[in-house]
Amino acid sequence: MIDTLISSKTRLKLLLKFFLNSKTTAYLRGLECEFGESTNAIRLELNRFEEAGLLEAHSSGNKKIYQANTKHPIFPDIQNILKKYIGIDQIIEKVITRLGDINKVYVIGDFANGKDSKVIDLLIVAQQLNRTFLSELIEKTESLIHHKISYIILNETELADYKQKHAGNRLVIYTKDT
User: Fold this and answer.
1) Taking a C-beta distance cutoff of 8 angstroms, is the pair 25, 65 a contact?
2) Residue 100 φ/ψ region, left for φ over 0, alpha for ψ in the -120 to 50 degree band, beta for the rest
3) Mind listing the pLDDT tens digit for each residue in 47-85?
4) How far apart are the first and last CA of the chain?
5) How far apart are CA 126 and CA 71, in angstroms?
6) How far is the C-alpha of 126 from the C-alpha of 101, rounded, in Å?
7) CATH superfamily, region 88-175
8) Domain spanning 2-86 has what CATH number?
9) pTM, to two decimals
10) pLDDT at 37 over 60
């Protein structure tokens, strides 16, 4: 449905790129390779977003690096619309249901600290878990997102011990409704 409202495929790709993960940065030539589109079409949309204040840009050498402006008043609204568009909330619910009795899922490590990394670290708090399905799911996901996923499975008692030993940022991505 969003592709009906936003008719430019380039504009939609840029919105998804920058607004789903606000830490994402990119430059024109990198986007050209990633999107497989002309630099002119991409540059036009980047300029529009920058003029509207939705993207911020800075120079790094001879490259102009773009990133979402998280301080823009409509940033949260755009991000929520995009999450609904890709159905991430529904995907997480379906996956969690098939995985077993899961209480919480945390992103830990570099991603939780807002740093881009080739590895996404997950901490899964569960009583029972379908490890076969988890392995299959991780393998499929890694090929889609081009990142490795590592995980730790703990129960509630082990989680308390873990929190005491490992201070740092943890980003909760799922909590079981109780």
Assistant:
1) yes
2) left
3) 999 999 999 999 999 999 999 999 999 999 998 888 777
4) 33
5) 36
6) 6
7) Beta Polymerase, domain 2 (3.30.460.10)
8) 1.10.10.10
9) 0.54
10) yes
